[in-house]
Amino acid sequence: MVEQNLAGKLAVVTGSNSGIGLGVAEALAAAGADLVINSFTDRDEDHALAKDLADRHGVEVRYVAADMSKAADCRALIAAAGRCDILINNAGIQHVAPIDEFPQDKWDAILAINLSSAFHTTAAALPLMRKAGWGRVVNVASAHGLTASPFKSAYVAAKHGVVGLTKVTALETAGQGITCNAICPGYVLTPIIEAQIPDQMKTHNMSREDVIAKVMLSRQPSGQFATVEQIGGTAVFLCSDTAAQITGTTISVDGGWTAL
């Protein structure tokens, strides 16, 4: 069995000071990878989080602030990393509204952060990966990259775009020691999901418990949220030599959602 040991690799994880991104960063650090973690803030607690990860896992971790809604910041993040063996495109936001009521600024922000940022970071990282002769790009898409739900037009459009970008990246890097895949989580109880619950309660006129059971997890046959640890473990697998011939595909971690 090929070991999932990432010692000596440097991973850049966007949107990684909480939620899925932090779960992936934890898993990569536990597998031995050095890290650059990121969000748009530049607080003492962000840098303290990096130090905590480094201390607990015995790896090097830096926090680099960059606004993933801005192309220049996306590319500057990779430049600041200095090298990039593993790129985890995770940054994302959400807004829920009918198409005809969807705020234009929310549409623009979701497309920029959830989709365009992955393009810009990938474009900056690929030359570094090609120079090294090895690289892994893992895009955190969504079950909504493979299917749709009402009131999430921007998010669904962006995540479908991420899946398409994943395939193109894989084709352009095939045979170069680089792979690109997308993880498609179902519902994971993270801050971004927590933030959706009040809007869904208002839209459906339901209690919190009913929104979770009847709206969110109604499409997740397992009836359970996926965990950030499960997403992190999937990312480590995709970055390992075991997955060297897995590229251009999606892995669903959705409790059976997209099997329906």
From TrEMBL:
> Which sequence ranges form a coiled-coil region, renumbered to this chain?
none
Q: Note the Pfam families from the entry.
A: adh_short_C2
Its GO biological process annotations read:
monocarboxylic acid metabolic process
InterPro entries named in the record:
3-OHbutyrate_DH, NAD(P)-bd_dom_sf, Sc_DH/Rdtase_CS, SDR, SDR_fam
Family as reported in the entry's similarity comment: Belongs to the short-chain dehydrogenases/reductases (SDR) family.
Among NCBIfam families, the record links this protein to:
PHB_DH (TIGR01963), PRK12429.1 (NF009093)
The protein here is known as: 3-hydroxybutyrate dehydrogenase
Give the organism, scientific name: Paracoccus sphaerophysae
**Species lineage:** Bacteria, Pseudomonadati, Pseudomonadota, Alphaproteobacteria, Rhodobacterales
